Amino acid sequence: MNKVILIGRLTKDPELRFTPANGVAVATFTLAVDRPFINQKGEREADFIPVVVWRKLAETCANNLKKGRLVGVSGRLQVRSYDTPGGQRRWVTEVVADEVQFLDRPRSAEPNSGFSGNNEGIEDIDFDFDFDENVSEGDDVPF
After folding, report:
1. Looking at the domain assignment, is residue 116 inside a domain?
2. From 54's CA, which of 21, 24, 25, 124 has a CA 20 to 30 Å away?
3. Distance CA 122, CA 35 (A)
């Protein structure tokens, strides 16, 4: 099984390109994903994870996402290699996304955000869920 689920913020606007052979849309962006701990300096570190999105989803991401937006990404991890013009082999690890969820609304003060103005496809997320609220000691967990 190869499944990756991430929540993070875009480090810059997505880059949209089209394959030369058949014009398929492909967008790339990098997600900054906070680590779950604070380092010795009292700072939260982040991992910067490259994401690749294809076809219609690539165009949707390029048209609606901007630097700083919070997104959820679901997909698979891919490792590929290529040779540089100097003959060196380089390895790339990236997430190929099947699903991208917009987890916040675009900043209304941001001019030309590329967002159409409707909230279609954007969900309100409540992160204040108490996971222990409905489970008491001795209750069976359903899995």
Report:
1. no
2. 124
3. 25
